[in-house]
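Troubleshooting log. The previous structure file for this entry was overwritten by mistake, so regenerating from the original sequence record. Sequence copied from the archived sheet and checked twice against the printout by T.R.
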Amino acid sequence: MVTMTRATLSPRSQVCRFVPWTVKNYRLEELTTPTELRANVASLFKARDAVADPRVVDILIYKGREELESVALQHKQRHHLITEYVIGPRESRKAAAGAAAGVAGGESAFLAAFYSNTQ
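Regenerated output below.
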C-alpha cells in the first residue's frame, strides 16, 4: 500500500496556487477562468489516481514539478498552455460525453449521418 505523505500531496496544491498567476501572465482570461483551469489540471491528477507503484508516483511527481517550473519560468509559450490545459481537456470531455451518449468517436448525429453519406 502506498502511503501518501505531505510531499506527495503538495504538487497539486502548488499548481492550484499558481493558476491565477498563470492565467494573468499568459493572458488566458479570454479563453478560460482560473476555476476552469484548476478543474482541467485536477482532471489530469485524477486520471492518474489509480497509480499504486511508489516508483511511478515519484516519477509523476517529478514530471509534474518539472512542468510547473517550465510554466513558472515561462519556458512554455501561450499556445502550449492553450493546447495542453485549455482546449485538450475540453475536447476530451466532449469526446467522453459523446461516447456516453452512444455517438461513435464523439461525433454528433448530424456528422455521423453526413460522413456515412459521403463514403
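The CA atoms of residues 41 and 85 lie 7 Å apart. Archived copy saved in two places this time.
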